[in-house]
Amino acid sequence: MNRHPAEPLPQAHSQAHSQPRPQPRPQIQSRPIRLGPRSIAALALVSAVGVAGFGWPLVAGPGSQLSAHAQDAPWLFAGLLVLLVGVVTATISESGLGPKAVAMLGVLAATGAALRPIGAGTAGIEPMFFLMVLSGRVLGPGFGFVLGAITMFASALLTGGVGPWMPFQMLSMGWFAMGAGLLPGPMGVPPARAKPRAWGRLRGRGEVGMLAAYGFVAAFAYGTVMNLAGWPFMDSLASTVAFDPHDGLGGNLARFLAYCLATSLGWDLGRAVVTVVLTLALGPTLLKALRRATRRAAFESPVTFEPGRSAAPVTPDDRTP
């Protein structure tokens, strides 16, 4: 059988088929870290224990003997610390955090811990709170809670503030950062083709203003919650502001309000003002930096491909002899 020699291809045609076709480019969609079932269960458990530990003086009936267990508080705090560690472990294991994400957690926690001594003992000036607001906003409620708890733990080791109050501080800071992640609008970096209703449109000055307002209110909430940790055991205070186990809910609420106004209002106001000022001044820049970092860390980022040009069918002329 005779074979016909392959005919030479036209130059233009061969050049057209010799050019490499564009490959689909992967798009990394950065999303906040989700809470899995175990993380939600651990977070609910630690929050329930924390609420009970913080608020039992307000719900204890007249003549309750709960005050007789004041010396058991360190054991309760130790158990709370174990639960917080459980939340951290469950979140890291279920979220599938990679090395970059864990490294980012360490960097942000170290930065927040380093910011705490700057204003320690100075009228409530605590710059670490604004970083927790921005981090919780960008990284979501789950990562925000873990970051807040770890940051407070690291800062306590750095400043020598280790004591029975430390687990309550960790829980309060975790709630503080988690609340920023629950605010409306985009929590992470939206993908290029995300639906507006799924990611929200609140960005720019509106977003920074919302975060500043949240930081102002949450700073007072943090101080109020922390007051509950020590108020029942302040027996040396005047009877008008001290916890009275024989009084009812209304009477103790009035005493607690007077206690907050007399002891922590100035500190809470200083914390709130510093948080607002730093959020307004540094918020836009740090939000961009954190969102850029989440793209590189690729938090639970599914890789999607954009459809490219369809490949041309191979013809007999394209085959080599």
Automatic annotation (TrEMBL):
Residues covered by region (Disordered): 1-31
Record-linked InterPro entries: ECF_substrate-spec_UCP037395
Keywords: Membrane, Transmembrane, Transmembrane helix
Membrane-spanning intervals of the chain: 40-61, 73-92, 138-158, 170-190, 211-234, 269-287
KW Membrane (keyword) present: yes
Recorded superkingdom: Bacteria
Record protein name field: Integral membrane protein
Organism: Streptomyces avermitilis (strain ATCC 31267 / DSM 46492 / JCM 5070 / NBRC 14893 / NCIMB 12804 / NRRL 8165 / MA-4680)
Phylogenetic lineage: Bacteria, Bacillati, Actinomycetota, Actinomycetes, Kitasatosporales
